[in-house]
Description:
- The chain is α+β, with helices and mostly antiparallel strands.
- Helices cover about 30% and strands about 25% of the residues.
- It is built from 9 helices and 12 strands.
- Strand 5 (about 50-55), helix 1 and strand 6 form a beta-alpha-beta unit.
- The longest helix is centred in the middle third of the chain and has 16 residues, at about 100-115.
- It is globular, with a radius of gyration of 19 Å.
Amino acid sequence: MILFPNAKINLGLNVVRRRPDGYHDLETLFYPVPWRDILEIVPGKNDTATLTVTGRHVDCPPEKNLVMKAYMALNKISPLPPVDIYLHKVIPDGAGLGGGSADAAFTLAGLDSMFNLGHSREELADIATTIGADCPFFIYNTPMLATGIGNIFTPMPLDLSSMTIAIVKPRVSVSTKEAYSGVKPMIPATDLRSTLLDPVECWNGNLKNDFEESIFPLHPEIDRVKQTLYATGAVYAAMSGSGAAVFGLFSADSDILADRINSTFPECDTFVAPLTLQREK
């Protein structure tokens, strides 16, 4: 079985309050984007499950990779035979794009389908929640307004398929600890859902990522990417999640835009494509 776990972006990200358990309540919209890893699951050759990772370097031993955590979490509920998993990393880590979370969620869904376990999407999302906060979103993989710690989902009728997306990841990473250490939780002045229902042309200045205020002074190169995307013609641009990737939404043709983005950001990881996504079945 071969699957293609995709990334996500955050459209707006409000850090509303710090919880007694140390986590933070958030408001954001997760939107799937077609920057994909490659995941293959085959019957195991030996008595234990294995994971082989190629492509981008992942600074994590296989046993701590979210893919193996997904296998173990599902195995506790529905005993699984051993499998060999091959993960080719394309989505950059430390980017706020959810690549590792997507890999885990697609592993859960893939194993469920491969062995005819019959778990519902809701059941798989509950299992995914035990792996990581972003993981359950990728079980649904459709635009979702997320609240709580990012694990309470409400479907959102948002269609950006007429847009082209450019994602730029500078040569810097932002840790979750660093991001949250500087953020100031507050109730947002404007309603996120209402803002998202406005035309994209109205989002600049109204749709905000609360992490930008503290992250940009520490990593001005991320801020420069955002400003350069606007200068290149983006209708809207923002940092995704806690960074360090920045995305821009454009009305330009993707082929023309790709040449422009690649020449403007030669030292960065970049991705340009029409903002369409066929959900993996």
